[in-house]
Amino acid sequence: MSKRFKNKWSLAVVLAASACAATAWQMGCSSGGNESSTNGGASGAVGGGPGAGDTGKIGLALSLPGGDVIQSFTYSLTNSSGAYILLPSPNPGTVNVANSASADFQLGGVPAGSGDTLTLSATTAGGSQCSGSASNISIAAGATTSVTVPMFCATPGVDAGNLAVTAVPAFCGTVTSLSSGATGTETFVGESITLVAAATGLNPTNLGYTWTMSSPIGAFGAATNGVGSQGQDEAVGTSDTMQFLCTTAGTTTVTLVVDDGPLPDGGTCPSNLSTTTATVICDPYAANQVESTWVELTGPNGINGYTGNVAIARALTAYVPTEAGANPCPTITINNGTPVQMNLRAAATTSIPARTVNTAPGISAAAIIAGANAGGPGKPALFPVSSCEYPLPSGTTSAMVAGRSLPVPKANPTKIVVIGDTGCRLQTDNGWQSCNDPNPNGTDTPYPFAAIAAAAAAQNPDLVLHVGDYAYRDNECPAGLGYNCGGSPWGFGWDTWEADLFAPGAPLLAAAPWVMTRGNHEQCNRAGQGWYRFLDTQPFDTADVHTCDNPAYDDPGTSSSSTTADTSCTNYGVYGNCSGNWNNPFLVQINPSTQIVVFDTADAKVQSQAVNPAFPALPTGSTSLSTGSTSCSSTSCLYYATYGCELTTAGSLVGASSPFLPPSPLPACPTANFTGAPLPFNLWSNHHPIFGYAVPTSGLPTNPIPTFPPVMKSVFPGTYFPPPINLTLHGHTHDYQAINFQTGTLPDGGTFQPAATLVSGNTGDILDLALPYPLTGTAVSAVGNASAVSVATTDAGVQEFASSDNGPPYSNPISAAAVAAGDTPTDNDFGYMVLQFNPGDGGTSATWTSTEYRTDNTVRDVCTVQTTGQMSCASWGIILDDDAGVY
């Protein structure tokens, strides 16, 4: 506590009004001479005599009781209106009394008048504050008025303490603009509006944006709590791009509040500067108005009972019927007949609970790759669109949905576009991409899928094969890192599926029917919910096992208690292993000479096993899975049993039998009710390359799913794939690969030709590290009694391998010295692949020609695949840069 003592004393002031020209601080009118003026009533100290050394000084000071000293006074003289009076001397002004014994002074040249006020203040050497005033002063012309001003001084007490103050600056942000750009502020349910805000502040990098809505009719792109919740982007800088997804018809007021960091408790910013609003309108779709349409192909898988190709017309609509329980799907017109309503596959919903995902906000990909049991609550997957479907009858020549012509299957397809890994990567600690930059030649990390889809559609394909990984926008676009992805949707709901597939891929979806291969990004703990609602070829599972909505069904578990058709686990895969992370393989006949098996390896990666506690990585060195094997525990053998049975089913589709038996105590594989027969060409599609290569962040190229080939060896000893397979097609590695292999050795001493491998994973996502040339090691190491699978070489010693990776640019050609020094030659373009069938004279003389195109439709490579499973490419051993012409 501090005490203040007040001392009162008086100061005499003379105010003079006269006709003479007064000088500052004069005592009166002077008639001449050298009369000196003083600054105060006391004279300055004087002394003197002839000898300066004999002189001294007398020090004077104006002292208060207690010994405190006043150095100066500040005065002001105001008139009756409170205005300062113009004087010859400064007003307000200061009087120096540092060497004065008294406090008398005179102001001259004061205009005559009444009602004047004189105010005095002073600060003592000890810190006391003194002040006083005299009012109602009258000044007569030519007269001198004396005024006594009582002064009050407040002095700190002897027991006063100190107060230490630390100031923490807090700033307020100012909104400068809020716009919706090209999207406007009105759209349909299921569509998005992009809101772009700009702001200023004293600390621009710290500006944050909080978005709220008055009515819960949508979801902000930054929100992790679903419909109606607040969106918040903190410390993002001078602009923020926010997506608003309409989930329900209606009108809402979006309020934006900008901050420049946290305020002290109780602090507020002026709302007229920090806050603005916009009105957003979400309109319902009219009946038969759709978001997207396409056709996909499926066929027999040994369990579903199909005996041939099945073409399924699909449509997505956001129309919500007013009549409860009504079918929201549009009509379809087939062969110009009577329109019929499509069947509802999965109804629109925005109420699916948020589930655990392995790329939850803030989860490090490095932790997952290292084998950590990573994962966490994700953003709820919102689906304000209904999925509709209708099987096209055999002989369909035309089909129309909502005025759109569907690409119906052709009788004898000969041209196939192959694409893969088409989404735009937004993943914490595992890569970011400029999703708003569609220019394939962008200067940073462009997202070129829209351009590639348009170029591929211009090829007029008969069929499109997607080799997996459709959705990559796992996490929110990071602020301040320079990536052009602001406002991008993220998570695993409809908005990301639209942004990664249905919007950029629209021209290609309209060009030809698709064959869909599932990738690891469509696992249940990633984008699996959208996979089952939109792309899976089997009926939607109303028992909730094959929906990925329920994390309880991510791992193999007990068999389903449901007896409804297509919901019991026996209808999907391994008997007793009920999980949404597996789909049965299926077969599509492309033309009379060619068929393709489509296989699901979505959950086959070691990283996938790491985040599925009941499905751990396999023990090293496991070689046999015969009954009674002790090479692995029952839990790890579950991996073998699951994939082993599905591989057995896949073999039956092309007439290949297998000796595979799941180890005891696991049940036997379900019995397939379809047995096919090989054709001259038997193609295989699964997402991960089995004989292809991936480059880790360090070390030599390796198989991306090393625990999977041992299972393949157990099902098909020596050949890995079913023996009739002569060409495999994959993605996963974000590059182009074409590989021909040396003849392998069978357990009985015979030989086999490993299937040629083509990889087309460079269609959209960030490209991978470069593969070295030449490749070293084997595609698949020898396991048990099976030989290794190694890359072939020409008679001239040139390795029969071609690739297109994202590595450093080189001159054409790269020098031998650079190669010897360890440099990685590469051609780092995005691209896509086209397969063209050449019937020859029938039978084994038929071939498939693979052409790899860059985004500008220049040709990167041309390969020819024989029915023997051997392949030759124009680029064997040729090292190119981006400027190379054809080949």
Description:
This protein is mainly beta and 887 residues long. The protein has ten helices and 43 strands. Strands 3-2-5-6-7-1-4 form a seven-stranded mixed beta sheet, with no helix packed on it. The chain has a seven-stranded mixed beta sheet with strand order 30-29-28-40-41-42-43, with no helix packed on it. The protein has a seven-stranded mixed beta sheet with strand order 31-32-33-34-38-35-39, with no helix packed on it. α8 crosses α9. The longest helix has 20 residues. The protein starts with a strand and ends in a 14-residue tail after the last strand.
What is the count of β-strands?
A: 43
- Over the alpha carbons, how many angstroms does the gyration radius reach? 42 Å
Low-confidence stretches: 1-11, 16-60, 558-568, 570-576, 616-636, 806-814, 882-887
Kindly state the percentage of residues in helix: under 10%
Largest sheet, if any?
7 strands, mixed
Would you tell me the structural class of the helices and strands?
A: mainly beta
Overall geometry: elongated
* Residue fraction in strands: 25-35%
If strands are numbered along the chain, what order do they take across the biggest sheet? 3-2-5-6-7-1-4
Mean pLDDT: 80
Number of continuous helical runs: 10
